[in-house]
User: Fold these one by one.
Assistant:
Number 1:
Amino acid sequence: MKRRHLKSSGLRLQKRDHWEAQGLRKVARNKTNPPQRISTIPFLLGLSFLYLLAWFINHVVEVEVIIILEMTKK
């Protein structure tokens, strides 16, 4: 009787694993620490902000260097 129970539960586990692999059954997630995943739009906005910041700093430094070179020529 006990063996039969283990056999059936083993089959149930196999089915559950198969369903999880198929994506039919949702895998229980840890509620306290959900997997961290950044969404696309904020990521792209942050990336473009960093790009613009780098471009601005580069531009300011370039202008400063040109001004200093012009001053040292005279």
Note: Residues 2-27+41-73 form one domain.
Number 2:
Amino acid sequence: MSRDEAVPGRDARNPDDGLTGDDAAARDGRGSTPRAAAHGDETNTPTRTPLLSARGLSRRFVSPRENLFQPGRVTDALKPVDLDVYEGDTLAVIGESGSGKSTLVRLLLALDAPSSGTVTFDGRAVEPGPAAKLRWLRRETGIIFQDPYASLDPRMSVGRIVAEPLTGLGIHSEGDHRRRVVEVLEAVGLDAEAASRYPHEFSGGQRQRIALARAIVHGPRLLVGDEPLSALDVTVRARILDLLAELRASLGLTLVIVSHDIGVIQHLSNRVAVMTEGEIVEQGPTTRVLGRPEHPYTRRLLSAVPTLDA
């Protein structure tokens, strides 16, 4: 997979992630609005089978009791929700901080055990358990975390970081690892020489490219981003958003993007689920939910959250 095949139209040698604000925009004549528009907003028909599905999924936390006479406080981080993600779609899960978005993602990927409900991936039950039991799911999924500074081990070279899924899943030989690492680094706009360097040598946007390379190196079908853009400068954020759209198209990825920034989501997703207080209060095609919101919370969110173009 050459850089041209993986990411059409991108100059992989000059991602300009070290620049911020107007300087980066002036460098290539672009503003902060991504080039890539969201793909079609078709309504899913009953004949389609979800790639990822949740039914009655919930998570309750009980804090330790304060004394012998008072039980621990119960927190419903996620109330029972139903959710379907269809192959080829980009689903945005939006809501303010503390709404349950990250809890939902952890349950969908079996990074935590639900209090109730079920999750299936391509018709197969997803159940938390030992790493060996979940290897099949890890092979099918990749995740990008919020903080590009905390999610990369500073003691490891970029090459080792990106190759982690290949090593952990037993994919390919060591020589194949090196070739594959170079391929995905170039696909996300970094040169091959980046493999021998360390995370502290890169800007925040470049680190998130490294995290993205690690998330796709093993060829997953589903890519999940848990607030992957919120820690970045607005212009760098737009570039990473462009890159996600390009990789979705070139690799045939299904995306689930968690965010509280509606301005980001409207450029990438074709479906939206709106969360507040641990519940999904509205979901549907992006154009409908953002253009004609039905729930009062969605309307408040649309009027209050800053957008990428602000």
Note: The chain has one domain: 50-304.
Number 3:
Amino acid sequence: VVGVVRKTDQIMMIEYDESSSDFKLLDPVDENNETFDIPDGTYGAAWNANGRIILSANAGGLYEVYPDTISGSRIQVRKLADTQATGANDGMNCDDIPVCLPEEFGNVYGYAWIDWEKSGDRTAVTGGLEEHIKGVTVTLTLETEYKNSNDKVCEDFGESSWVVQTDGQSDSDYQWQINDLPAKDNFGNDLFYKANFDYQGADFPYGFSPTGYTKRLEDEVTSSEVDSDVYQNTSSSPTQETDPMIFRLLMQHKQTKQKNISRVLGSINPFSDDGSPETTTATSDLFILEPNETVHRADAGISGYPIFEPVAVVTIDCLAENVEISLDNSESSVDAEFSVDVYHDSVEPGNLVTAQSGDQLVLADGIDEYEKDIPPPLGVLIIDVNVVAEHNGVQLGPLGVVSNQSQTYCDPPFSVMIEALPDCPVLDLTIRVLSSEELNLDPIPQASGARIEVTLYEDGIPRRLGNIYSSSGQYYELDAGLFALEELSIQEDSEWRIEWKATDLVYPERTMEGTIGPKLFDCDSAAPPDPEVTFVPDCATGRGVFAIDNSESLWNVDFTIKELDEIIRGPETIDAKVIKEIELLLDHNDKFIVVLTLSEVQPDVQTLRQFADNETIQEPVQITRQTFNTGSQS
């Protein structure tokens, strides 16, 4: 039993059991443990509202008492609402007192999960292939004004923000959940909420480095239960949200792109290795709850990359009449799906040896030998190895090519291996003549040396290479067991291919030749889009100006301006190197969101280069009148 002692302004708590009763006199304090003054006089009503203890003062005011905050002789009390004073001992003044106390409640939950392949959705709500994450902080905020029973804004009705973390009993059940939230205000209006996710400090699988949040597939939070419902936050300003497509470009941008570490075939990492994202937070769109129900709402898909450094090593064993391929995934935190293609003479569909080609999965931290036998042919042997990362059966990222060309005669021994791998900002060309020992043969007879003629074609223009100059042109001449390494300078965005021919120095009638490419040399990329949004209101004129600054970007972006999830302007395109201003007619307390996305139409490479030397263009202010007609919103 709870009561108020009038003369001392204290709270009386009476506890009953079967044989006796006990009471305490407690001093009221606020949430900061400071003395809280409650009205003098009579309290004409008290009630229990879903476990909440409410007192009504005849002098005016509703007060909530929190028994679970009792500490020593203190108890927390909070004023919920103002009410009119009454001389009657009913504390309510009948129906003239508007109700400002939540009466309809609901529960809400959601998930944070890893979107390994960056698809924007997962295979199932729970128990799917992409695991949920423990330890993600979720802040839920009420985004609409709470109205009393007379449709007036309540000054104080209770909490408007809640913070929880994703947790659960198993990996497939980690979730965030908040219970007993107001679902409707006292005038019957739906209440709109928004969820903010922060994965800072969350528990991620070994080797996984988060880079942000995955793309969104649907506009509404309730459109799908298996997709991601958040936009990546890129600044502290609440008026700007950036689409994951733009954020992904920010994360993937490098001064020099992917760098291959060569071990005969080389290794490939198809994932970004840039630094941490600007922020670890993302925010959902608005959603509502259902009274007396538990509903699934905002989920957040987190993208990133694992450790992935697969290596394929080719060894030609003439004694065993076999080619061994070591598939090394020991430096990776995810599985690797290797695909081995074996060709004779040249890389053409008709020359693929299907019986010797195949796919093989190598687990994370593992090293396996390729399971199929590959007898060396009398002529040219070409082996291409492709690899893709895999996790729980889900393939991640694009295929990476780790390939070389080798041509071998075993009797008498003569073998040449050619490899060309981008090592930005150059192209590494390795030419190797294998020794008898490297072919697993006796030192005698010694393997032949070779004369190798190599021509690099860059956008169709030939360039002869070599360490020996003659009247007939440059070429390489290498004894068995030696190799040559060239770092070739190639123009960005040019197409390159290498044609080569090797001649046996002992038996010149034996020749080999091959072609690598054509391929695009793509190292440097234009700086990613990073538009900034500012908003300057002018209360005297009832106008406000949005400035969207795309002047530092070489990319076109689209913008949409929303007010309470309703589009009031856009989508419209802002070209690269442009600052665009939009003027809106507004009311007090209007709240806007600017959503930025990467435009489908982008400048070509030549235009990007021209943009780099151009000055910023300032577009004139544009006034929006016809699309904006709303009242005051929070």
Note: Residues 580 and 619 are 5 Å apart (CA to CA).
Number 4:
Amino acid sequence: MRFSTFLLSIILFTNCLVFALSVNRTLCLLFTHLSVASDYPSAWLAEEVPNVHVRFSFCCRLWTGKYTMNLLRFVSLRHIFFITIIWLLALILFYRLHESVSIDYGKELPKMLNKIIKLEKEISEQNKEAGRLLERLDNDKFAQKWFIFSNSTDYTAHPDDRDAPLSIGDKIPVLVMACNRPAAIRVHLNQLLLLRPSPELFPIIVSQDCDHQPTSQVIDTYRDSITVIKQPNQTEPILSKKLKKFAGYYKIARHYRWALNQIFFNMKYKTVIVTEDDLQIAVDFFEFFLATYKLLIADSSLYCISAWNDNGQEVMIEDRPDLLYRTDFFPGLGWMLTRELWKELSPKWPNGFWDDWIRDPPQRRGRSCIRPEISRTAMSLYGKSGVSKGLFYEKHLKSIKLNTKFVRFTAMNLTYLLKENYEKLFSSQVNQAPVVSLNAIQAGLWTGKSVRILYRNAKEFVDIAKIIGLMDDMKAGVPRTAFRGVVPVYYYKTRVFISPVGEWKNYDDN
């Protein structure tokens, strides 16, 4: 390395010296030419010009020119000399500095590695701080959405179809399930507190499991605005070797049972909205539940209201934030239930996998949930680090679109969602839709219309779902978002009803 640097310096110095000598040679030739040329007019002036005064004037000028040329030659030589001296001094200084900063890598390398490790730690801390700042920015974005959309976009029914605004004396608490994700619970609580229209109507209760101190510290900073309860049983579930890897699901079921017992039996609430710390909420999250509450109370064929659309990816939904459906599939992920349902379920609550259990026929008992076309909850990045280890997150959950337009549901007549009304309306829409092929839809032949695609068995449904991009799994024979066997989806700007062949009777849970 030193030799190559020295060689490069010699080359640069040689080039500069050659350039300087070339300039000097050129100047010398130029001066010589001018000197010779100046002698000719001198002789010419001496012989041809009769006027003594004129000859004297020209001779003075020529003498001055010769003096100036000699002076320039002297200055240029001095200039080249000083440039050469400066280059030599620069080279000497360069090598002195190079010697002084030379590194003994045998001794210095460990120190350098330690510095790099320390720097990496500092960068990691800065990244964490950046994450906290991004959380604050997320909250600011939600605030902007709330003020923009609540004051500008107002989806309401036709004036003749409006019902009186909902007026209830009961409170609707929000139960937040938390465990060991401090950043997640902070973001979730900030959104709930920001978008909550009334602290009196919607009290927030955080139930923490896991006894995770960093999460507890975050939750404690909100105690002025929320109620905090903690699941006391922190023992490990007694499981067989085969089931030990699912211990997290058993802890979750235990936590849900304890928390819902507190809400309904100790605090005496009549209904509750259940959320989890890894969920984002829409600007009209509370409005949605406030308006559908009376349906849940009035219609015994409903057993939940859910803010979630399992097939709510942006490419598969219509831009109709006011559109609501009934579904036979329990969606969860931001849902409301009543004390009557909990009285029914709590005595037989399972030890694990409660969300699959609640979808089974003995619990569902032919009842439905209400769900939106555009989800009022969405999965945050924190959903990747839960008990499920990000199951379905990359493929489905992260692409669920969160509604951003405020819909004034409480000013709308939602009685079309009651069982006797909805079954007639939905069946009419499905039966009137022509039966077409997937190829015809993909070719754009049915854009803007409603159509049907038929399936004869579970395998055919799964094949269709995979082509379209739907979640193709079933629980107790019920496809996600299905109502009476029909799965509605918005595909190639066409309302598609994926329907069973013939008259629907019931689901085959086998």
Note: Residues 422-510 form a domain with the 2,3-Dihydroxybiphenyl 1,2-Dioxygenase; domain 1 fold (CATH 3.10.180.20).
